[in-house]
């Protein structure tokens, strides 16, 4: 009997069948491994891969003035989130979202035209707008909780408070302070972020509506600052009036307690609305001139020169020295702003009438090394240490760089640079028994939940001159106001001390000074019997008048009068001054 021959077709069929069986066996084995052997391990791994821990920003702390007025607050808002893969009509969605949110339609469409499952269309959307979004039939568009920063008084103290950037910190997910105190104390105000756990797609994008767990943010702190809202408002209004009246380029004012260093007001003009900072086109408007504007102070520095010769025992206030009508040092010719006859004049007269030649003659008696030493000791060429970003250093040339004519311009404020705050701090030494303080803005931070307060401790004061010299200088600076160049600075009912300044502006190309361009200033304090406020007023390039005694002194007088009355400081006509403290919930 013959064996039946197996055909090639049958062989191939058997082979295919065998391979299919092998594949099925492999699949069954893998299925058994997944569902039975490694089930628990794989489930855990799947959960780990499909859910993501996302940081959630905290509600930003608020900023209060010294009397409890809210200067910066945080209100609840919404993020508008979309799942582009679930939106069929992207053109329509873009158009309707644009109408509600006020965002460019093309920009929205660009965000929706993607394969991502999670897209943020807009942040900080007010609740009333967010409600309109939910009422529209826009497909899968969601809302998430968000916060927005509001500044109730708009431009008030804008250069001090600063603003919060629209960008988020990549590591924390928190909003970031972009300028001013919002920047300096960003960590205090933001606290620690919270978290949420949500499902993500293959590209780790959050899938809206899949939030599984939330951990709230914590440790948010509010801050109370030294600014007095009422004084700040008056200062800004008066500064603006002066700049516009004089046709000036701009200006700055600082009001400080000369004993503690607390800043009661700090203003620069032009200013801007903090609620619309992103619309500012000229970035120079955002510059805090009080700490960033470096200028040649001019005659206000004569007070430091006079203090140096008195402190060093070289001359007394009634000591007289001969002053020619003009003084020549090398190729440098020094004259006076107003005609003066040659003759002998006392140190007191030199300061009272602001004689340039007199200031140079005093510096010559003092010598280069000592003059430099005192200028630096009064804080020039050093940052004040105020708690704001961007403070400039200023400059006093070291003696090894001096030419023969340097001694002819430094004594009356030329050839060096300083910020308004540096000059104010220097003059405040006379109001504080010879001690130089650190200016500051933060009084304390506090926790809403437990009421804990943390007070700011400034650096201890530095002794610059003796108490006796400070008292003598106070009397001399009073004479400047009662009999000299600062008569328009006299505050009614209060003894007032101060010094005028009319400074030329250096040519940017190094060719001497610009003709017809000046900076007018006045710096002083009151009442002299017990100083409560020290004020500096700096007006850049006034066009109608140019002298500090004409332009800046009246502004000083008005601000000083308002501030002293607001602080309830009684007039010191009888030789004393008394202040009744204001009370508030936040007052320490």
Please characterize this protein's 3D structure.
The protein has about 600 residues and is of the alpha+beta class. Strands 2, 3, 4, 5, 10, 18 and 19 form a seven-stranded mixed beta sheet that branches. A hairpin with a 5-residue loop joins strand 8 and strand 9 (about 205-215). Helix 3 packs across helix 4 (about 105-110) and helix 11 runs parallel beside helix 13 (about 355-365). The longest helix is centred in the first third of the chain and has 30 residues, at about 10-35. It is elongated, with a radius of gyration of 35 Å. Mean pLDDT is about 85; it is low at about 575-588.
List keywords for this structure.
alpha+beta; five-stranded antiparallel beta sheet; 18 helices; 32% helix
List the SSEs and their pairings.
Blueprint: H1 8-37, H2 39-50, E1 51-56, E2 63-64, E3 70-82, H3 90-101, H4 105-112, E4 119-125, H5 127-135, E5 141-150, H6 158-161, E6 164-168, E7 175-177, H7 180-184, H8 186-190, E8 194-200, E9 206-215, E10 221-225, H9 229-246, E11 250-256, E12 263-269, H10 289-292, H11 302-311, E13 320-323, E14 327-329, E15 332-334, E16 343-346, H12 347-352, H13 356-366, H14 368-377, H15 420-431, E17 435-436, E18 442-447, E19 453-455, E20 462-463, H16 467-482, E21 497-506, E22 513-526, E23 533-540, H17 548-551, H18 553-566
Parallel strand pairs: 2-10
Antiparallel strand pairs: 1-8, 2-3, 3-4, 3-5, 6-7, 8-9, 10-18, 11-12, 11-23, 13-16, 14-15, 17-20, 18-19, 21-22, 22-23
Helix pairs in contact: 3-4, 9-18, 11-13, 11-16
Strand segment count: 23
Quickly count the helices: 18
Helix content, binned percent: 25-40%
The biggest beta sheet is recorded as: 7 strands, mixed
């Amino acid at each position: 009997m013959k064996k039946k021959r197996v055909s090639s077709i049958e062989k191939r069929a058997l082979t295919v069948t065998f391979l299919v069986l092998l594949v099925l066996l492999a699949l069954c084995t893998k299925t058994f491994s997944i569902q039975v052997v490694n089930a628990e391990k794989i489930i855990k791994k799947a959960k780990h891969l499909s859910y993501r821990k996302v940081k959630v920003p905290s509600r930003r702390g608020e900023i209060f003035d010294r009397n409890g007025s809210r200067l910066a607050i945080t209100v609840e808002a919404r993020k508008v989130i979309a799942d582009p893969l679930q939106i069929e009509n992207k053109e329509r969605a873009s158009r309707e979202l644009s109408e509600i949110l006020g965002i460019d339609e093309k920009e929205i469409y660009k965000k929706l035209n993607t394969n991502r499952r999670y897209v943020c269309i807009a942040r900080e959307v007010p609740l009333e707008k967010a409600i309109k979004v939910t009422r529209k039939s826009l497909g899968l568009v969601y809302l998430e909780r968000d916060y927005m920063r509001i500044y109730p008084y708009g431009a008030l103290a804008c250069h001090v408070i600063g603003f919060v950037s629209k960008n988020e910190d990549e590591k924390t997910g928190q909003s970031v302070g972009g300028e001013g105190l919002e920047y300096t104390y960003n960590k205090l105000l933001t606290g620690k972020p919270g978290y949420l756990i949500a499902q993500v797609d293959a590209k780790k994008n959050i899938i809206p509506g899949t939030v599984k767990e939330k951990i709230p943010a914590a440790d948010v702190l509010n801050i109370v600052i030294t600014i007095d809202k009422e004084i700040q408002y008056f200062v800004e209004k008066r500064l603006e009036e002066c700049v516009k009246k004089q046709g000036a380029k701009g200006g700055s004012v600082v009001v400080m307690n000369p004993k503690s260093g607390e800043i009661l007001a700090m203003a620069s003009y032009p200013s801007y609305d903090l609620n619309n900072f992103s619309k500012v086109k000229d970035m120079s408007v955002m510059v805090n001139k009080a700490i960033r504007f470096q200028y040649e102070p001019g005659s206000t520095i004569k007070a430091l020169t006079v203090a140096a010769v008195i402190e060093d025992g070289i001359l007394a206030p009634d000591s007289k020295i001969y002053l020619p009508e003009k003084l020549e040092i090398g190729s440098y010719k020094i004259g006076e702003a107003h005609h003066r006859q040659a003759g002998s004049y006392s140190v007191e007269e030199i300061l009272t009438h602001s004689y340039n030649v007199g200031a140079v003659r005093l510096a010559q008696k003092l010598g280069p090394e000592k003059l430099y030493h005192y200028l630096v000791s009064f804080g020039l060429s050093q940052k004040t240490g105020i708690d704001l970003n961007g403070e400039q250093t200023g400059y006093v040339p070291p003696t090894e760089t001096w030419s023969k004519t340097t001694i002819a311009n430094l004594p009356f404020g030329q050839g060096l640079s300083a910020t308004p705050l540096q000059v104010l701090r220097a003059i405040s030494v006379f109001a504080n028994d010879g001690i130089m303080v650190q200016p500051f803005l933060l009084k304390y931070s506090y926790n809403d939940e437990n009421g804990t307060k943390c007070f700011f401790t400034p650096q201890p004061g530095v002794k610059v001159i003796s108490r006796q010299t400070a008292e003598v200088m106070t009397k001399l600076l009073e004479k400047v106001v009662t009999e000299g160049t600062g008569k328009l600075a006299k505050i009614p009912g209060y003894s007032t001390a101060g010094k005028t300044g009319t400074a030329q502006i250096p040519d940017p190309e190094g060719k001497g000074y610009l003709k017809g361009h000046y900076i007018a200033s006045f710096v002083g304090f009151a009442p002299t019997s017990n100083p409560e406020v020290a004020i500096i007023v700096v007006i850049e390039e006034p066009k109608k008048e140019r002298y500090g005694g004409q332009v800046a002194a009246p502004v000083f007088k008005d601000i000083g009068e308002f501030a002293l009355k607001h602080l309830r400081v009684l007039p010191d006509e009888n030789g004393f001054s008394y202040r009744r403290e204001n009370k508030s919930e936040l007052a320490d």
